[in-house]
Design brief:
Mean pLDDT: 87
Number of helices: 10
Structural class: mainly alpha
CATH architecture of the largest domain: Alpha Horseshoe
CATH class of the largest domain: Mainly Alpha
Distance between the termini: 62 Å
Radius of gyration: 17 Å
Low-confidence stretches: 1-5
CATH topology of the largest domain: Serine Threonine Protein Phosphatase 5, Tetratricopeptide repeat
Shape: elongated
Oligomer: single chain
Largest sheet: none
Order of helices and strands: HHHHHHHHHH
Strand content: under 5%
Length: 180
């Protein structure tokens, strides 16, 4: 019983460590048997996803390396949390890095083999997420790695359409040059 409680505590610790960028807490959670692939309730995200929160800088790459060394898969998918469009599942860490303008993490994920063509439950790709986020440098990175600028999601939208819908005028201009 004690071992189960310790492991459950360690797994919860991984989520918090990833969110706050606390490498020491991450190491402790992994040593105590925390599951780096566990998707936490209520957000449905694994620790590798949680590293992609905006404005988190401390030790993110080192924590990502630790998670991968302990069995996290680079394209681990989030779990749907509800019935609204915002609650859709299937996002990869690269999707969240693209959405939240985490260029350094996106570069790292791609160097470790992240799938630039991975689709979430709506068929959005990382380039769709970069278009929503409006980060042109991230879009350039994804395109350099073979992202498809004309990929169409189940709602009929491609990255350019998404950028227009979100009012990302600079991204629209950039993608227009690529697509047209």
């Amino acid at each position: 019983m004690f071992k189960f409680i310790t492991r459950a505590w360690a797994t919860a610790n991984l989520d918090e460590a990833a969110f706050y960028g606390d490498i020491n807490k991450m190491k402790d959670g992994l040593v105590k048997g925390g599951d780096p692939n566990h998707r936490h309730i209520p957000h449905g995200l694994a620790p590798l996803h949680r590293l992609c929160q905006p404005n988190r800088t401390a030790d993110r790459i080192e924590i990502a390396k630790l998670l991968l060394e302990h069995g996290t898969t680079i394209d681990i998918r989030s779990i749907a949390r509800g019935s609204t469009p915002a609650d859709v599942g299937g996002q990869t860490p690269l999707d969240l890095a693209a959405f939240n303008s985490c260029l350094e993490l996106a570069t790292f994920f791609l160097s470790r083999g992240a799938d630039v063509h991975a689709m979430d439950d709506r068929d959005y790709t990382p380039l769709h997420f970069a278009a929503v986020g409006g980060d042109i440098k991230l879009a350039e990175l994804l395109l350099e790695h073979g992202a498809n600028p004309t990929a169409v999601a189940s709602d009929g939208k491609n990255p350019l359409t998404v950028a227009k819908d979100e009012g990302k005028t600079e991204m629209v201009a950039f993608l227009n040059k690529i697509v047209l």
